[in-house]
């Protein structure tokens, strides 16, 4: 029989439940907005269908809507209950004098700040934000612009290569390697240098805003997160 104390201990904090609710509402709101956009758009072509489908897939994860996103970020960084819930370590199997049991053990790698995790997540969006407009640009090839075939293939290759580059950088970034931050900054500017001109050439000004804008926002968030993480580390070193 479970006691009331045991029941209270395993129950999730109210801030965690609020965060889950906000994520679900964000996903549902994004689905509705994108479906309405597709329904009322004057031209329901290949490009719009790709963008709408991609937006619906993104709605399954963490999505950017201004008011809801602000509430989610506020909970992540301002709620002590949520912070305490997220810093728990995964229980591992331990063999000691008491026998074999599961115990919470901190990982061996150094502690990672929230800003480094934010930059890591933002950087992982580079590859899909490049591959989606590259897929949209296939419509230009289908319309007879055969000269765009090499550029589209280059776009796809750059998007796939970016995913591996970001994975490599962030793997060492979480291990406290300062050179990984510099390399991630270089990758960020290289991604912008490849993606934005291709958006302008193959998709026009509309594509530059629709597909280049989110990438610029992700890049800006990554650079800002790296800056804040570096400044926090320097402040901690001076305090100690």
Topology:
Layout: H1 4-10, H2 14-40, H3 46-58, H4 66-78, H5 80-86, E1 91-96, E2 99-104, H6 114-123, H7 126-142, H8 149-173, H9 178-239
Antiparallel strand pairs: 1-2
Helix pairs in contact: 2-3, 2-4, 3-7, 6-9, 7-8, 7-9, 8-9
Walk me through the structure:
The structure is a single chain. With 240 residues, the chain is mainly α. The chain folds into two domains: 1-108; 110-240. It is built from nine helices and two strands; from the N terminus they run αααααββαααα. It has helices spanning 4-10, 14-40, 46-58, 66-78, 80-86, 114-123, 126-142, 149-173, 178-239, and strands at 91-96, 99-104. It has a two-stranded antiparallel sheet. Strand 1 and strand 2 form a beta hairpin. Helix 6 (114-123) runs antiparallel to helix 9 (178-239) and helix 7 packs antiparallel against helix 8 (149-173). The chain is globular, with a radius of gyration of 22 Å. The model is unreliable at 1-10 (pLDDT under 50).
Mean pLDDT: 77
Strand content: 5-15%
Largest sheet: 2 strands, antiparallel
How far the N terminus sits from the C terminus, by CA atoms, comes to: 49 Å
Using only C-alpha atoms, the radius of gyration works out to 22 Å
Strand order of the largest sheet: 1-2
Query: Which residues form runs of ≥5 with pLDDT under 50?
Result: 1-10
| Secondary-structure-derived class | mainly alpha
* Whole-number tally of structural domains: 2
């Amino acid at each position: 029989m479970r006691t009331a104390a045991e029941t209270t201990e395993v129950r999730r904090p109210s801030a965690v439940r609020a965060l889950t609710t906000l994520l679900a509402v964000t996903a549902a709101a994004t689905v509705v907005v994108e479906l309405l956009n597709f329904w009322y758009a004057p031209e329901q072509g290949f490009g719009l269908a790709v963008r709408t489908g991609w937006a619906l897939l993104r709605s399954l994860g963490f999505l950017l809507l201004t008011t809801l996103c602000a509430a989610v970020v506020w909970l992540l960084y301002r709620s002590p209950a949520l912070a305490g819930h997220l810093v728990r370590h995964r229980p591992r199997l331990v063999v000691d004098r008491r026998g074999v049991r599961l115990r919470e053990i901190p990982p061996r790698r150094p502690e990672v700040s929230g800003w480094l995790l934010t930059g890591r997540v933002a950087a992982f969006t580079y590859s899909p934000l490049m591959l989606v407009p590259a897929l949209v640009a296939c419509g230009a090839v289908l319309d007879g612009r055969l000269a765009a075939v090499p550029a589209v293939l280059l776009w796809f290759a750059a998007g796939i290569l970016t995913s591996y580059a970001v994975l490599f950088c962030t793997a060492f970034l979480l291990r406290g390697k300062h050179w990984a931050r510099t390399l991630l900054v270089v990758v960020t500017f290289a991604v912008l240098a490849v993606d934005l001109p291709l958006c302008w050439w193959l998709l026009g000004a509309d594509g530059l805003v629709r597909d280049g804008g989110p990438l610029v926002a992700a890049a800006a968030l990554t650079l800002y997160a790296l800056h804040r993480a570096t400044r926090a580390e320097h402040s901690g070193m001076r305090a100690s």
